[in-house]
Amino acid sequence: MNSHLSDEELIGNIHRTLTDAQREAMDRHLTACPHCRARLADQEALQQRIRNSLLADLRAVQPSPGMRFAAIASQVHGDKHAALLRLSRRLFPVAVALTALIGLGISLMDLPESIVRLYANPKPTSASSISALACVFFAVAAVGNYRESRFIQLRSGLFSGLAFILWAGTAVVGLQVIVVVRDILFWIVAYVSNNAQIGLVLSSWALIPLSLVWIAVVIGGGEYHYKRLGQRSSWQLFGWTILGEFCILVLSNFI
Amino acid sequence: MPDIEALIQRWRKGDERSAETLYNHFRDSTFRLAYGLLGDPSDAEEAAQDALTYALVNIHRYDHRRASFSTWLHTIAVCRCRDRYRRNRLKKFSLTAWIGGDVGLPDPHPGPEHHAIHAETSSQVWRAVQGLSLPLREAILLRYWSGHTFREMADILGCPVPTAQSRVRLAYQRLRATLAPTELVHLEEEESR
C-alpha cells in the first residue's frame, strides 16, 4: 500500500481543490486506509467547527439602525439621472489619451532625425519631453479606469477605444524608448571603453534585438489587452508599461 | 427570496421600490462581509453603504452574463474594504510610536456599542481570522461566509482560480495553526452546548 496521505492532500480534499485524477487516487487510497479515513474525518470536523464559529460570529452582528436605504436614497436617485456627468467621466480619459496620442504623432516626425543624430554628433541626446508628457497623460487615462469593475458592460465601446489608444500610444513611445536605450548604451560603452567608435558600433547593433523586443511586446501586449479588455489586469499592465517607458525617457535626461 | 434579476430590470426602468428591496436584501450580508474583512463595525458600515450605493447608482453597468449580482456587489465591497483597510493602516501608523515613544493612544471612552459587538465577536476563531493577512481573510470569508465558488472568488479577488484555491487552503492552515489544540477543544465544547 502507498504511504499515507499528506495534510496538504487532506486539506485539498475538504476544500474541493483537487483535480478529478487526484480525487480518484485519493478515494482509492481512502477505501483501503482506515488511518487516513480517520484523519480526513478529523479535518472535516475541524473545518466545519471553524466555519460554524465564524458564521455564528458574523450572524451575531447587526448594522446600526442608521444603515438604511433612506440614507442613500437621494444619492441613488440623483446620480441615476446624471447621465451627462457619467458620460463626461467616461469621456475624460479617452480625451486625455487621444490628446497625448496626437502629441506623440507630431513628435514622431522627429524620430528619424533622432536615430541618425548620434552618427552625426556622437553624444547621447535627451528624450523628447512630449513623449514623457504623453506618458503622464496615458497614465492618467489608464489609472482612472483601474478602479472600475471587471463586470462593467462595454456598451459604448469607449473602453475598447481607450485601450486601443493606450496600446498604440505605448507602442509609439516604445519606438522612442528604443532610440533612448541605444543612446544610453552608447554612452555606457563609450564611457567604459573610452572609445566613442566602439560605443557607436555596439549601440547600432543593439538596435536589432531592441526592435525584436519591441515587436514582441507590441504583439504580445496587444493580445493580452484584447483578451482582458476593460479588466483591471489590462489597465494595470498599461500602468506598468507606461511607468517603465517614462522612467527610461526621464533617465536619458540625467546622462 | 425575491427575484433579483426582475428587481434589477425594474430598477433600471426607474422603479425606486425595487432599488430599496435590492438594498434591504443585500444589506446585512454585505455589511457582515465588510465587517469580517475590516473588523470594525463603523468602517464596515461605511464600506458596505458605499458598495451598495455604487451598485445601485451604476446598475446599468451590471451584466448578468458575466456574473451574478451578488458576485458583482461583493467585488465592489471587497474593493471598498481594501481602500479603507489601506487608509486605516496609514492612519494607524504613528511615527512617534515607531521611533519608540508611547503615543498612539486608544480611544479612552469606547461606546457601549463597541463593547457589545466586541463581546459578541471575540471568539477564538474570530480573533484568528482577524489575525490573517487581508488576502487570506478575503479568501476565507468569501468561501466560508459568502459561499462563492472558486471561479467567482477569482473574479472578485482579481486573481487566477488556483491562487484563490491556495489562499483558502493557506488561510485554513494558518487558522488551524493559530487555534491551538486546547482552543479547538474549547470550541468543540461551546458547539456541543
Order of helices and strands of chain A: HHHHHHHHHH
Continuous helix count of chain B: 11
Strand content of chain A: under 5%
Q: What composes the largest sheet of chain B?
A: none
Largest interface: A-B, 45 and 63 residues
Bulk shape of chain A: flat
* CATH fold naming of the largest domain in chain B: Rna Polymerase Sigma Factor, Chain: A
Task: Specify the structural class of chain B.
Answer: mainly alpha
The averaged pLDDT of chain B comes out at 81
Radius of gyration of chain A: 29 Å
Q: H/E order of the elements of chain B?
A: HHHHHHHHHHH
Rounded radius of gyration of chain B (Å): 19 Å
| Class per helix and strand makeup of chain A | mainly alpha
* E-strand count of chain A: 0
Give me a quick take on this structure:
The complex is a heterodimer of chains A (255) and B (193). With 255 residues, chain A is mostly helical. Chain A has ten helices and no strands.
Task: Provide keyphrases for this structure.
heterodimer; A: 255 residues; mainly alpha; 2 domains; flat; B: 193 residues; Rna Polymerase Sigma Factor, Chain: A; Arc Repressor Mutant, subunit A; 11 helices; 75% helix; globular
What does this protein look like?
The complex is a heterodimer of chains A (about 260) and B (about 190). The longest helix of chain A has about 35 residues, at about 160-195. Chain A is mainly alpha-helical and about 260 residues long. Chain A is built from ten helices and no strands. Chain A has helices at about 5-15, 20-30, 35-60, 70-80, 85-110, 110-120, 130-145, 160-195, 195-225, 230-250. In chain A, helix 5 (about 85-110) runs parallel beside helix 8 and helix 8 runs antiparallel to helix 9. By secondary structure, chain B is mainly α. Chain B has eleven helices and no strands. In chain B, helix 2 (about 15-40) runs antiparallel to helix 3 (about 40-55), helix 3 (about 40-55) packs across helix 4 (about 70-90) and helix 9 (about 150-155) packs across helix 10. Chain B starts with a helix and ends with a helix. In chain B, about 40% of the residues are buried. Classes of the chains: A mainly alpha (about 260), B mainly alpha (about 190).
